[in-house]
């Protein structure tokens, strides 16, 4: 079998799908994207095609190493996201060629169903409480929300109180009937993270995510010393070689590699295995589309330490396109009481609605995140 063609489709709300064709008619789909830089990743994917066209798509390990090591410069958000989407499509082809789901190729199921959680938006407590109520009707009991809006390097007591009050009201409204993680989103500086973690501790969040930015990872063990709240991070780390340093330093209890950013299934299975050796849980990051979600699930279903899967099916967080809009076999993605079953079809298990993808790609907007500023006019982390 030989790879014949790579085609990319940028689609709403902010995603990109990749179709890899072969001379035997088997087609694989991947999702190579960095939110806000889709065109840059698209260029990288097409630059990699020189290493792929004419090659056997089943030699995933070799093609991965060629893409990673063959170009001298390596790593980072753009290149590792391009490799990630290509890698997913190669696994899809291999599974389809052999007639089995990808998790069978990775050693088989380690669990029968995977626990998922839902993002809940809104900056006011009332909006969040309302959002949780609606999602509970759909069977969810685990959620994640932002911890703060713009947050200064040294912030006022009023801002700290507002962030804590918001979480207190949510715990008050639902008691122990729900669990939630709080995403600091890299908006909080190390000293303020220390203060917030202490004040949030009584509300027992499942975890605090990105308590500080990944580039300040040296603070993770120090922050962990000061709190009983489990700390999570990983959506802005792109390879084993970055995760290695975090595992060695300690402090992070849950790693959240993104299957579309950290080198794909090939790399994230290895990151998951490294995490298990350090007694660190796995909760893959996934605010993306159906191929990214399916890739996460294949890793979750073969990783003993996978505890939670992020997903955004039907929450209207993604404006202009929903996760299942581009999927024909929607029934396979059914979430019951917060759990999803292994995708049963060969390969990644996603039947892509190609006509819909082509139509949606015709007028795809260039999504970028908002640019926030502090009251003094300086740039704030989003
Ligand atoms: Mg996050």
UniProtKB/TrEMBL annotation:
The keyword Membrane does not apply. Keywords: Lyase, Magnesium, Metal-binding. One of its GO terms (biological process) is amino acid catabolic process. InterPro entries: DgoD-like, Enolase-like_C_sf, Enolase-like_N, Enolase_C-like, Galactonate_deHydtase, Mandel_Rmase/mucon_lact_enz_CS, Mandelate_racemase_C, Mandelate_racemase_N_dom. Pathway: Carbohydrate acid metabolism; D-galactonate degradation; D-glyceraldehyde 3-phosphate and pyruvate from D-galactonate: step 1/3. Its EC number is 4.2.1.6. Catalyzes the dehydration of D-galactonate to 2-keto-3-deoxy-D-galactonate. Reaction proceeds via an anti dehydration. This is D-galactonate dehydratase. The lineage of its organism: Bacteria, Pseudomonadati, Pseudomonadota, Betaproteobacteria, Burkholderiales.
């Amino acid at each position: 079998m030989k790879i014949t063609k790579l085609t990319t489709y940028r689609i709403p709300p902010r995603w990109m799908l990749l179709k890899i064709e072969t001379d035997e008619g088997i087609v694989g789909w991947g999702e190579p994207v960095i939110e806000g830089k889709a065109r840059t990743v698209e260029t990288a994917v097409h630059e990699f095609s020189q290493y792929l066209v004419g090659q056997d798509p089943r030699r995933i390990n070799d093609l991965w190493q060629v893409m990673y090591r063959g170009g001298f410069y390596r790593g980072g958000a753009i290149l590792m996201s391009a490799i990630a989407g290509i890698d997913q499509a190669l696994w899809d082809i291999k599974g389809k060629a052999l007639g089995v789901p990808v998790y069978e190729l990775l050693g088989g199921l380690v669990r029968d169903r995977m626990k998922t959680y839902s993002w809940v938006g809104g900056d006011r407590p009332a909006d969040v409480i309302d959002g949780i109520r609606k999602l509970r009707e759909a069977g969810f009991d685990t959620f994640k929300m932002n911890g703060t809006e713009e947050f200064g390097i040294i912030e006022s007591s009023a801002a700290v109180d507002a962030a804590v009050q918001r979480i207190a009201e949510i715990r008050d409204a639902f008691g122990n009937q729900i669990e939630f993680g709080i995403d600091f989103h890299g908006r909080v500086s190390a000293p303020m993270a220390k203060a917030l973690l202490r004040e949030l501790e009584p509300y027992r969040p499942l975890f605090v995510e990105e308590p500080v930015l990944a580039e300040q990872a040296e603070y993770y063990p120090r922050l962990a010393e000061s709190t009983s709240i489990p700390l999570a991070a990983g959506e802005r780390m792109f390879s084993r070689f970055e995760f290695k340093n975090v595992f060695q330093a300690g402090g992070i209890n849950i790693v959240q590699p993104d299957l579309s950013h950290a080198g794909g299934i090939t790399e994230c299975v290895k990151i998951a295995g490294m995490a298990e050796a350090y007694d660190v849980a796995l909760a893959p990051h996934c605010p993306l589309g159906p191929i990214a979600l399916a890739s996460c699930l294949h890793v979750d279903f073969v990783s003993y330490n996978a505890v939670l899967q992020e997903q955004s099916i039907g929450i209207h967080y993604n404006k202009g396109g929903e996760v299942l809009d581009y999927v024909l076999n929607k029934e396979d993605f059914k979430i019951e009481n917060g759990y999803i079953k292994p995708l049963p079809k060969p390969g990644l298990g996603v039947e892509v609605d190609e006509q819909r993808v082509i139509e949606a790609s015709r007028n795809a907007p260039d999504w970028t995140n908002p640019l926030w500023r502090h009251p003094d006019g300086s740039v704030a982390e989003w």
